[in-house]
Amino acid sequence: MSDWNGKISTSATKEAMARDACEHAIKKLSDALDRKRQVRLLAATGASQLDFLGLVTASRQIDWPRVELFHLDEYIGISETHPASFARYIRERIVEKTGIVKFHLLDGSGKPDEVIARMNSMIAAAPIDVAFAGIGENAHLAFNDPPADFETEVPYLRVRLDEACRRQQLGEGWFASFDDVPKEAISMSVRQILKSESILCIVPDTREAAAVKAAVEGPITPHVPASILRTHPDVRLFLDRNSAGLLTAEM
């Protein structure tokens, strides 16, 4: 637990957690904008991020046109018109709400190798200043399912999604049936995520409680991908009472 000291914020409700995370995000983005003409932001998607992103994108304390946006992952084989498209999620829930003008969306309907090569080139141009992340029910970080590759320095990868990950996507209501959930995706690598200057990890709800416990109290291992966050010098994990419910130590 010692390597998480000072890095965890626990709130009574997910709404309070979202407010706490939003305040921290605004501070991190504002600090970066004070130092740099343009700031690079990495954003997670999914149901767990909705309350948080709703608050952050409503903020007028951020000079959003000076923010350049990347996202973590996308399914291979679906277009931006699909309800489950993370590119669609980013466009509708972040870009259109803020007026960000420079953003890079992963094209799930394109040729994966070409999409990856293009995105790897763009993200290599400068560091990521602030990253918003989540933790999956199987403790994945982005779409790096266990056992995750903790070694590769390649920014974006083609990955296979395990059954637990695919069932989570079905359970969140993004697909009509399990067979509809893609088996492959493009994901930012673990090492690339860790290159972000600051990381905010937003994890509400009971269904992530076991993954949170493993990431916080277990060993740092590729079999619990999110455990690697403990090695980062500026990471904050935001929990609500439910997602923190299995932790044995006081937060």
Low-confidence stretches: none
CA gyration radius, whole angstroms = 17 Å
Shape assignment: globular
Give the CATH class: Alpha Beta
Average pLDDT number: 94
Number of strands: 10
CATH topology, by name, is Rossmann fold
Helix and strand content put the structural class at: alpha/beta
Percentage of residues in strands: 15-25%
Q: How many structural domains are formed by the residues?
A: 1
Largest sheet: 7 strands, parallel
Strand order of the largest sheet: 1-10-9-6-2-3-5
- Helical run tally: 7
Q: What percentage of residues falls in helices of 4 or more residues?
A: 25-40%
Distance between the termini: 10 Å
Q: Could you say what the CATH architecture is?
A: 3-Layer(aba) Sandwich
- SSE pattern: EHEHEEHEHEEHEHEHE
Q: Would you give an account of this structure?
A:
- The chain is of the alpha/beta class and 251 residues long.
- It is 31% helix and 18% strand.
- The strands form 2 sheets. The chain has a 7-stranded parallel sheet, with helices on both faces. A 3-stranded antiparallel sheet has the order 4-8-7.
- Helix 2 packs parallel to helix 3.
- It is globular, with a radius of gyration of 17 Å.
- The mean pLDDT is 94.
